[in-house]
Amino acid sequence: MIRIGDGDTTAYKMLVDRHLQPFLAFATRVTGDRSEAEDVMQEAFVRVWKTAGRWDMNRNTRFTTWFYRVVMNLCIDVKRKRKPTSDFDEAFDVQSEGPLPDDMLRDKQKAAHISAALSQLPERQRMAVTLCYLQELGNRQAADILEVSVGAVESLLVRGRTRLAEILAAEKDDLLKESVG
């Protein structure tokens, strides 16, 4: 960050190359939209460039912790500004990637169910679950990002897992009823 603050574009490119993919995956999971996530990442890296000159090496916060916080807050802002969409709008969002269409459809349906279930969690539970289980961060780093204690993260995870299990169980029951009827 210090080198970037001094205008070192090579250091900036190295930082972007190292952090773009994992943080883009995180932003996509939080926003649920790849295009919005790309916009978030562009803004996040602009903020890195602008704040690098004021970066304090003596702070207790690691770069990745600070950057997760920046990306998380930008994602929350995007979601707040988002216009409601209908399922009909998303029906035409078809991509032709992957080996077999049936496998892709099954994977997409599973991801949609999980994403829908995650979206029903309160914001802090959703962030804790996303950081710890989808981004595979430790509880300590998630606590730093969320600015809460490790105990609070563990509590959020327990409540989040419990609520996800309830939501997914209800969906499973509804799907079984539909397939029988």
From TrEMBL:
<dbReference type="Pfam" id="PF08281">
    <property type="entry name" value="Sigma70_r4_2"/>
</dbReference>
<protein>
    <recommendedName>
        <fullName>RNA polymerase sigma-70 factor</fullName>
    </recommendedName>
</protein>
<dbReference type="GO" id="GO:0016987">
    <property type="term" value="F:sigma factor activity"/>
</dbReference>
<comment type="similarity">
    <text>Belongs to the sigma-70 factor family. ECF subfamily.</text>
</comment>
<dbReference type="InterPro" id="IPR013325">
    <property type="entry name" value="RNA_pol_sigma_r2"/>
</dbReference>
<dbReference type="Pfam" id="PF04542">
    <property type="entry name" value="Sigma70_r2"/>
</dbReference>
<keyword id="KW-0238">DNA-binding</keyword>
<feature type="domain" description="RNA polymerase sigma-70 region 2">
    <location>
        <begin position="15"/>
        <end position="83"/>
    </location>
</feature>
<keyword id="KW-0804">Transcription</keyword>
<dbReference type="GO" id="GO:0003677">
    <property type="term" value="F:DNA binding"/>
</dbReference>
<dbReference type="InterPro" id="IPR007627">
    <property type="entry name" value="RNA_pol_sigma70_r2"/>
</dbReference>
<dbReference type="InterPro" id="IPR036388">
    <property type="entry name" value="WH-like_DNA-bd_sf"/>
</dbReference>
<dbReference type="InterPro" id="IPR014284">
    <property type="entry name" value="RNA_pol_sigma-70_dom"/>
</dbReference>
<dbReference type="GO" id="GO:0006352">
    <property type="term" value="P:DNA-templated transcription initiation"/>
</dbReference>
<feature type="domain" description="RNA polymerase sigma factor 70 region 4 type 2">
    <location>
        <begin position="114"/>
        <end position="164"/>
    </location>
</feature>
<dbReference type="InterPro" id="IPR013324">
    <property type="entry name" value="RNA_pol_sigma_r3/r4-like"/>
</dbReference>
<dbReference type="InterPro" id="IPR039425">
    <property type="entry name" value="RNA_pol_sigma-70-like"/>
</dbReference>
<keyword id="KW-0731">Sigma factor</keyword>
<keyword id="KW-0805">Transcription regulation</keyword>
<dbReference type="InterPro" id="IPR013249">
    <property type="entry name" value="RNA_pol_sigma70_r4_t2"/>
</dbReference>
